[in-house]
Amino acid sequence: RKPMTLHRLREMHAAGEPIAMLTGYDASFARLLDDAGVDCILVGDSLGMVLQGEASTVPVTLEQMAYHVRCVARGNRSAWVIGDLPFGSYQASPAQAVASAVTLMQAGAQMVKLEGGGWTTETVRALTQRGIPVCAHLGLTPQSVHALGGYRIQGRGDEAAATLKQHARELAEAGAAMLVLELLPATLGAEITRSLPIPVIGIGAGRDCSGQVLVLHDMLGVGSGRLPRFVRNFMEGEASVAGAVRRYVADVKARRFPDDALHGYQ
Ligand code: KIV
Ligand code: NA
């Protein structure tokens, strides 16, 4: 496989060719995901929950993220590697965000992701101007779980939808090269995706995004907690982890996953 590039990801979005993303946190899984045809590996701060057993992503530190980015970068060969900027590593100022992003890029990330709209526009511009590709993240932004009052659907109602659309547009104009949308009505996910020149990756945001992402442990059925509606256990009917990941990639590419009737929100 040829190494994935930002240019190619943008082409895939323009051509309506779905992008398959999963989270990954270590070298062995990075190699497996890459070999199974995953386009992008997100080293998500969800590792606070699925690796560390924390109740949210809030306690995750930049040092921990850099460690896992480094592990993934060592195992990966051709997937596009995105590192999450954790809570507290970019909120103080654009300068703080640049310094934190440098840490993740030097650990092997090719792009950094940050949560939120409005106030993040200036930060995205600062990072982009300095040669650091940025993925924005709107909708349910887990680092703000305590402000949002739980893991609940976002963007319902005309006013909330209009704000999200405006934030998405501003972030793309500021140079964001990708956008993750989490937990939104499927129609809003589709509308934002259509309106932007950059790939939009959905998680609980409907089938018509440019691509999909799930937390690795969730889609492998690892863990005992109640899973959100948007997750499917790809291990069901599969004999191996690699088989489950290949099925995920095939189902995303064929737009068989997600099925909005089963996994979507209105
Ligand atoms: O941390 C993470 O895994 C994420 C995805 C759920 C988008 O941010
Ligand atoms: Na995250």
UniProtKB/TrEMBL annotation:
Pfam families: Pantoate_transf (PF02548). Catalyzes the reversible reaction in which hydroxymethyl group from 5,10-methylenetetrahydrofolate is transferred onto alpha-ketoisovalerate to form ketopantoate. Its EC number is 2.1.2.11. One of its GO terms (cellular component) is cytoplasm. Mg(2+) binds at D45, D84, E115. This is 3-methyl-2-oxobutanoate hydroxymethyltransferase. Keywords: Cytoplasm, Magnesium, Metal-binding, Methyltransferase, Pantothenate biosynthesis, Transferase. It catalyses: (6R)-5,10-methylene-5,6,7,8-tetrahydrofolate + 3-methyl-2-oxobutanoate + H2O = 2-dehydropantoate + (6S)-5,6,7,8-tetrahydrofolate. The active site is at E182 (proton acceptor). Pathway: Cofactor biosynthesis; (R)-pantothenate biosynthesis; (R)-pantoate from 3-methyl-2-oxobutanoate: step 1/2. It is found in: Cytoplasm. InterPro entries: Pantoate_hydroxy_MeTrfase, Pyrv/PenolPyrv_kinase-like_dom, Pyrv_kinase-like_dom_sf. Its cofactor is Mg(2+). 3-methyl-2-oxobutanoate binds at D45, S46, D84, K113. PANTHER family: 3-METHYL-2-OXOBUTANOATE HYDROXYMETHYLTRANSFERASE (PTHR20881:SF0). Belongs to the PanB family. It comes from Piscinibacter sakaiensis. Binds 1 Mg(2+) ion per subunit. HAMAP family: PanB (MF_00156). Homodecamer; pentamer of dimers. One of its GO terms (biological process) is pantothenate biosynthetic process.
